[in-house]
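Lab manual, section 2.4: Encoding a predicted structure.

Procedure: take the sequence of the chain (127 residues), apply the prediction step described in section 2.3, and record the output as structure tokens. A sample record is shown.
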Amino acid sequence: MSYPREKRLAEEIKKIVSDLIRNELRDPRISPMTSIIEVDLTRDLRYVNIYVSILGDDEEKEETMKGLTRASGFIRREVGKNIKARYTPEVIFKLDNSIERGIHMYNIITKVSEQKKSVPNEDKPNE
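Recorded output:
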């Protein structure tokens, strides 16, 4: 996405969809801990991939994705009302686990560093 117009539209779509998820969607399946990570718009502006992060267990993620997929028509209509483009892009939601992977890696690094601190250093000669 190296074109300025695509970037501007993607950012605007991100704001609109984020607001819709937070304030407009009433589906109980959608987790309140849902956030939009990235919006990727195709060059022809026909499709938009929205990457969402959902904090929770696997069942909660699956239900939220079902709820978002079910609401994609409503979201597309609202995006079409708020942006000025020839075509209203088809909304495709994709799950992004990058935040959870980052938390997992942080926990592993912390655990290893704690283990290193607890093991006495054998390299230093006793004086």
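Check your result against the sample. The longest helix spans residues 4-24.
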